[in-house]
Amino acid sequence: MSRQKICAGNWKMYKTPDEAREYFHVLPTVLKPGTCRIVIFPPAYNLLVLKESATALSRAGIVLEYGPQNIHFQKEGAFTGEISAHAVKTLGCELALIGHSERRTLFNETDDVIAKKVKTAVDEELQPMLCVGETLAERDAGRTNEVVKKQLQVGLSLIDVAHDEYVIAYEPVWAIGTGRTATPAQAEETHAFVRQVLTEIAGAKKAQTVSVLYGGSVKPDNAAGLSAQPNIDGFLIGGASLKPADFAAIALAL
């Protein structure tokens, strides 16, 4: 069964609004329409720029989807500095990035909090992109499958896992921003395990329709080898997504 190929960029805390506008002036010169599903997660202050740019790119035949890098699990309230899923939906967002390793490690997000965010995204009709992955210490201890399984089981525990729409991004924490990348075989091994866990909790039919992305120092020169693996359906890209030509080259490898 075919699955959506997705090329997603996580801009983290980079790009001013003017820099974002310039990026989308360049992107249609290097990206072919219909290449794959194109998604950008910008800093929250750039979401309006993405809304403007998506309209302009549509005239060039490029469909751009976008969403926040984080959401709060409450619709609104006295949560200074947080981001409302309900509000970003009104800006045309279609997805939300949830549980990125930096949110887990730098901001102490637990699996239980992440599960609430996944549920809120689904309730607000945003497709959650749930990130899972192990640290270097966990990998060296042989705990990769244990960690990933728990993150999947808890992270998806509050939604109808067999019917709701979601995307999984496997990001080995030891390969993010380090220049180290899991080999295609290493990445495929864990992606196949993710698919196995999804089969256990959501059923075989659903497991074969969920796109599972790889994230971890993906670059134009390693994208083809990774994308050739049967259970890798695309990428969640950090640094390389900040350059339109690199992002486009990776998308073209899918």
What characteristics describe this protein?
alpha/beta, TIM Barrel, 4-stranded parallel sheet
Report on the structure:
The protein has 254 residues and is of the alpha/beta class. The chain has a single domain, classed as Alpha-Beta Barrel (TIM Barrel). The protein has helices at residues 17-30, 47-58, 85-89, 101-106, 111-123, 136-140, 144-155, 184-202, 204-207, 220-227, 244-252; strands at 6-10, 37-41, 64-66, 95-98, 127-132, 167-170, 212-214, 234-237. The strands form 2 sheets. It has a 4-stranded parallel beta sheet. Strands 4-5-6-7 form a 4-stranded parallel beta sheet. Helix 1 links the parallel strand 1 (6-10) and strand 2. Helix 1 (17-30) packs parallel to helix 2 (47-58), helix 1 (17-30) packs across helix 11 and helix 10 (220-227) packs parallel to helix 11. The mean pLDDT is 96.
Q: DSSP strand (E) fraction?
A: 5-15%
CATH architecture: Alpha-Beta Barrel
Name the CATH superfamily assignment: Aldolase class I
- The proportion of residues forming helix, as a percent range, comes to 40-55%
The SSE order reads: EHEHEHEHHEHHEHHEHEH
What's the pLDDT, averaged over the residues? 96
Round the Cα radius of gyration to an integer and report it. Answer: 17 Å
CATH fold node name: TIM Barrel
Please describe the biggest sheet, giving its number of strands, its sense, and whether it closes into a barrel: 4 strands, parallel
- Report the structural category: alpha/beta
Number of strands: 8
Poorly predicted residue ranges:
none
Number of helices: 11
Q: Provide the domain count.
A: 1
- For the record, the CATH class is Alpha Beta
Sheet with the most strands: spatial strand order: 3-2-1-8
Distance between the termini: 16 Å
Shape: globular
